Amino acid sequence: METIEIAQAVLKINELLEIVANGQEIIIAKNHEPIVKLSAVKTKKKRASLFGSDRDIITISDDFDEPLDDFIEYM
To answer: What is the residue range of 63's domain?
Structure first.
């Protein structure tokens, strides 16, 4: 969490809003006393995984469980 004086915050408000939008919080202080905390209202949500979304893209071969020829000597 970053703390910044109000006089500097006014000059950098666009930059501060961008930082807050990315999930960080910022404290704005007046005479080194915290007066305001900036935090994002909405956070970016991860997309829920969709069951079956890779159907027909990923396939498993019939011999999936069979030993590989390269490893026969280790078995």
So the answer is: 2-40+51-74
